[in-house]
Design a protein that fits this description.
The protein has 318 residues and is an alpha/beta fold. The chain folds into 2 domains: 236 residues, P-loop containing nucleotide triphosphate hydrolases (Rossmann fold, 3-Layer(aba) Sandwich), CATH 3.40.50.300; 61 residues, Orthogonal Bundle (Histone, subunit A), CATH 1.10.20. 52% of the residues lie in helices and 9% in strands. It has 14 helices and 6 strands. A 6-stranded parallel β-sheet has the order 3-2-4-1-5-6, with helices on both faces. Strand 2, helix 2 and strand 3 form a beta-alpha-beta unit. Helix 12 runs antiparallel to helix 13. The radius of gyration is 21 Å and the shape is globular.
């Protein structure tokens, strides 16, 4: 397989970090300074009508900067990292072709990593294998599928225990291609990345400051009308069981609206789940040894962060 051309680093900047760390604001400031456009890398901001709970940037927050990969599908649609990469890649290439800077901003680590690597995803043709595997799961249970996978791909079976979706996907890839998903992943990971960006990561020196911002953000979302947003989605026919409605900040308040939990309990659950998600995000991004970390020391230091980010971008030469 031919190697992919690697774009120049100064033309692509990734702004990553945990929820509520200031990624959107920094991305906009960099786009303003570097004649750029923002490509959102958030697995929930893709959904239309899910604005408040996903912290989707408002027109005021965008400050006239073009944002891509926001509001691109309905909450009822199935979406995946492969579809994200397929849609976002030509957008990145077009921005570069027009001589502008690409600012890839978001906290969904798998999405941004797949976009930068240009991952070659295993095909998902509609040949019926998935449906047959789902039927087998219903009839014989998870252990039957896991046993099949253990014979075919022991490594994938080990990684996928207790996760029906991953087990079905691994078996589907085998039946469709004759290649195990472990072998497929190893082959694609060996391919040079499509892009070589400058990586900027936001974090707080004191974890308690980040957690305080997260807790406050949930309160602000409620003041902005998050409950009304969720009620409107349900009233429009969006099922509470769809994937989009399982997002943090939606499923908990759905329970409150449906009388399965109190509002105070739901608020506490959203705050706790958001803090845990931030911790997972930091774990993911800290694996990246080329990340330039911008550490926030207090809540009013954003101008300093912007200036440091500009300096790093200006002096990046590889």
């Amino acid at each position: 397989m031919p190697q992919k051309e690697v774009a120049h680093i100064n033309r692509i900047i990734c702004v990553n970090g945990p929820t509520a760390s200031g990624k959107t604001a920094l991305a906009v400031e960099l786009a303003k300074a570097l004649d750029g456009e923002v490509v959102s890398c958030d697995s929930m901001q893709i959904y239309r009508r899910m604005d408040i709970g996903t912290a989707k940037p408002t027109a005021e927050e965008m400050q006239g900067i073009v944002h891509h990969m926001i509001d691109i599908c309905e909450p009822t649609e199935d979406f995946s990292v492969s579809r994200y990469t397929e849609m976002a890649t030509p957008i990145v290439d077009d921005i570069l072709a027009r001589g502008k800077t690409v600012i890839i901003a978001g906290g969904t680590g798998l999405y941004v990593e797949s976009l930068i690597k240009g991952n070659d995803f295993a095909p998902v043709p509609a040949t019926g294998h998935r449906q047959r595997l789902e039927q087998l799961l219903e009839e014989q249970g998870l252990d039957a599928l896991l046993q099949k996978l253990q014979h075919i791909d022991p490594e994938a079976a080990q990684r996928s225990q207790g996760n029906p979706r991953r087990i079905i996907r691994a078996l589907e890839v085998w039946y469709e291609t004759g290649e195990t998903i472990t072998a497929h992943n190893a082959r694609t990971q060996a391919i040079p990345p499509r892009y070589s960006p400058l990586w900027l990561g936001l974090d707080y020196e004191n974890r308690s400051d980040l957690y305080e911002r997260i807790n406050k953000r949930v309160e602000i979302m409620l003041e902005m009308g998050l409950i009304e947003e969720i009620r409107s989605l349900l009233d429009s026919g969006i099922p509470e069981t769809c994937t989009a409605m399982q997002a943090i900040g939606y499923k908990e308040f759905v329970d409150a609206l449906c009388g399965r939990a109190s509002l105070d309990f739901a608020i506490a659950q959203v705050q706790q789940s958001s803090r845990r998600y931030a911790k997972r995000q930091l774990t993911w991004f800290r694996r990246n040894e080329t990340m330039h970390w911008l550490i926030r020391h207090k809540g009013d230091d954003f101008e300093e962060i912007i200036e440091r980010a500009r300096q790093i971008a200006a002096h990046s030469d590889n």
